[in-house]
Amino acid sequence: MKTDELNTKIKPTWCPGCGNFGIFEALKRAIVNLKIPSSQVLVTYGIGCHGHMANFLKTNGFEGLHGRPLPLAIGAKLTNPNLTVLTSSGDGDAYSEGLNHLVAAARANHNITLLVHDNWAFSLTTGQSSPTSPLGKITKSMPRGTLETPLNPLKLALASGATFVSRGFATEVDHLSNLIAEAIKHEGFSLIDVLQPCVIFGKEFNPLWFKERIYKVEEKDLTDADRAYRLLSEENKLPIGLFYRVRKPTFWEEYGLKEPLVRKSLEKENIEGILENL
Questions:
Q1: Which helix (H) or strand (E) is 72 found in, with range?
Q2: If one looks up domain 3-277 in CATH, what number appears?
Q3: Where are the domains of the chain?
Q4: Where are the beta strands (DSSP E) in 56-203?
Q5: Nearest-CA neighbor of 85 among 196, 183, 200, 217?
Q6: Among 75, 92, 167, 256, which residue has the fewest nearby CB atoms (within 10 Å)?
């Protein structure tokens, strides 16, 4: 399979120069390099510029409510664990409305991959501040500059129990594609926060600004959470790469599920005993 075979007939409608193009290409390369049939891939999407990819990527897809793509992915994976399940989300989608779902998915270690298009703004709704907007960033919702301390989603994911924590950059397509492939292969909850300059509502944080601060981390002891915290706490630098990876039982394994829900009988069960205990 070639990456072009994962394109639908609908042409991407993102702004010229948008980082979504790089993320789109990186995801396709990862699927092709892992030789996963497109029929075995499900991507759930939230609401935002990233969500338009549901129209462009030829896999199973479901675009849900704002901030709610993770529950869709979790339900699909529990129903059919043979599927490769990913969630495509934005920083507003994943870290604002969807923040509780991120924490819950990490705590339970669901075997899915969350790919966040992080452009530090609610861009589809024309540029309001998001949870990751830098202090002082002038937006339509904060015309005097953003006042809240920006969220560090990777630190939060570590604290919540995520077993794969990483960061990519939208224009580093090969590097990002490798991260996505490793996340898919990982058994457990994987987060990839993708720094993605917005060419319309983040002109002061353009690709050159990012490239002056970005560097690739060496994959040393990936089980050392303290090292990951230190890397993610650096000031005026933006490390990208894989920071933390450990193998822990997934929700499926912990719960002791014996077979996919899609194979279970639809016959009625007697629940009188359960009701009596209540």
A1: helix 69-79
A2: 3.40.50.970
A3: 3-277
A4: 60-63, 84-90, 113-118, 164-169, 190-195
A5: 183
A6: 256
